[in-house]
Amino acid sequence: MLWVGYNVSAVKQTTSEPAGIKEIAKSLGISIGTVDRALHAREGVSPRTRAKVLKMAEKLNYKPNVAARSLKLNRRVRIAVHLPQQIQSFFDPLRDGVRAAAAATLGVTVDLDFRTYPRLGEGDVELMEADVARHFDGIILTPGNPAAIGTSLQRLAEHGRAVVCVASDAPRSSRLACISVDAFVSGGIAAELLGMRLPNGGAVVFITGDLSTLDHADKLRGFASSLATEAPQLSLLPTIESHERPKDAYQATLDLLARKPRPAGIYISTANSLPVLQALEQKRLLGEIQVITTDLFPELIPHIESRKVLATIYQRPFTQGKVAFETLIRFLVEGVKPPPSTKLAPHIVLRSNLGLFLNHLSGPDESVGAG
Asked: What is the pTM of this model?
């Protein structure tokens, strides 16, 4: 059974009746206006004060007033979506998920501004800095290098921009929340599948984008951990970082295949798998070396059908985009603070269940098979 996990800590409620904004203001000794701005991520409130208000709101079991909520109907909300141009097979359905959730939002006019930069870790900081001064209520983005964007995230928070990370995280930053697949579990699944397929042992390799991206690093941790416990007969070769450049991934794979020991298994932890598969096919090793890929797109389907790719770990990009938007809009309109991290269960796509996913790749039923 697949699952959706939530990283939520239990909050002890100290009141039997929900508190209002007045009670929060009185408890903290600040103005009602400051509390209102903090709860709705408006400008004029420091991150420290906003954190205190949100913590007190949880403690006092604050619920948005229904009448006050109705006054927010028909308001206009501006949301920017920062995503890379690269890996369209993943980020295009993620954008579709955002659009679908926005179209289903009732009582609020949503202005979506999809903004792009070349690739993860390249051009994202400049885009964030440009949007500090623009009047967006919230931003959805995929962090490349969390250390490089920390200052920009802080500036966005100081200017009242609520940020939801999607597909990867920037922990210990001022972002509001993160929506992603459970990357550690994804890596663990890949290792366990290779272990079952290669009972007699051999070397396996992890091919990724850039390990400065938390999603990639967490997949490697899960992969290495599961190898040690579930497949000790397999040895792990040095990781290959292609930095999401197709030519680099292709050449690195050719170099890998020329070395000894030649790997018995490969796990490609990003959707940028085609260059690796092309190199394997060129050397007539596709189908001989066990391969697990990431995500699902038209070019990958024949390889799964022919069993040249053992399995793919589907990251549910449509659902990630949809949940990221819903999380942000609830916070902006209703003041509902989300859990810091929402992790979706990855889906395992094999030849036997491929047809189920082909029917639901880019729609609201993408979560087929979840239990």
From this structure: 0.78
